[in-house]
Amino acid sequence: MWQTVYLSPAFAVSLAAFLGAIAGGGLCALAHYLPRSMEARWAEQCREYLASREATLPGEAPSPDTADDIPTAHAALAPSPELSVPPSWPAMLATALVCALLFVLCAWRFGGTPLALAGMVLLGALLLLGLIDLGTSLLPDSITLPLLWAGLLVNLQGGLTSLPQAVLGAVVGYLCLWLLFHAFKFCTGREGMGHGDFKLLAALGAWLGLSALPMLLLVSSISGVIIGLTLVRLGRAARGQALPFGPYLAVAGAITLLGGGYAGAPLFGLG
């Protein structure tokens, strides 16, 4: 199924660069607007709740504390003007260049086949999730969950790995970070990561299989430690400050997809 269509390498790489540049600009805009629209929707739900609290029972007046808090809460939940502000052109250009490079590497890795197109979908989603998490510490379910199901569908006919590997990768990937989260919380009383990280690793497991999880965890952990220590040294982050883990998982996913390290794909073509 995944080898039924084949394009010449030169045409595939050129087409990948073109598609990547276009997709990158769109992903940058989506990374800018999606979390803000989510926050606006949450604020609207809170305003509706506050309005229902104001509609007290006949003859019942709100307490002085509640009456003082309601106007303040309404002001805090006012619609953000950022929804109408577009992302900057330098950010869109940089994202377009990165996306074009990723798509070219994917076309070089898989050739002009439908599997290359599937890989570009994964890389685009990882870039989008990394940008959103980096800016807002959010990993939207509207992206992570469809990405998980897409990985299972791609591997239904053995696209990147076998279906049993994909199913086990999704389950074990989720459980790995879920157990780590609760162990860390039990020992420290603090939450070390968000639930979106569980779902992102599960999605990567669904795409790349159970055997890819050690590589994914190793690369994401090492890159997280190196970048975290660098930020502390440069004064850009405080010791103990929570940093989003999603971007490191996204980087690990891209490296594993393009470099190998999962069932049926030796690491960087070796072996």
Number of helices: 9
Number of domains: 2
Structure summary, number of beta strands: 0
What's the multimeric state? Answer: single chain
- Radius of gyration from the alpha-carbon trace, in angstroms: 22 Å
Transmembrane segments: 12-34, 89-108, 115-132, 166-184, 204-232, 244-265
Protein name: Leader peptidase (Prepilin peptidase) / N-methyltransferase
GO biological process, one term: signal peptide processing
GO molecular function: aspartic-type endopeptidase activity; methyltransferase activity
How would you describe this structure to a colleague?
With 271 residues, this protein is an all-alpha fold. It folds into two domains: 1-113, no CATH class; 139-262, no CATH class. It has helices at 9-54, 64-76, 89-110, 114-136, 141-154, 163-188, 195-208, 213-233, 246-259. Helix 1 crosses helix 3 and helix 3 runs parallel beside helix 9. The longest helix is centred in the first third of the chain and has 46 residues, at 9-54. The radius of gyration is 22 Å and the shape is globular. Belongs to the peptidase A24 family. InterPro entries: Peptidase_A24A_bac, Prepilin_IV_endopep_pep, Prepilin_peptidase/N-MTase.
Task: Summarize this structure as a short list of keywords or feature phrases.
single chain; 271 residues; 2 domains; 9 helices; globular; aspartic-type endopeptidase activity; Prepilin_peptidase/N-MTase; EC 3.4.23.43; transmembrane; Leader peptidase (Prepilin peptidase) / N-methyltransferase
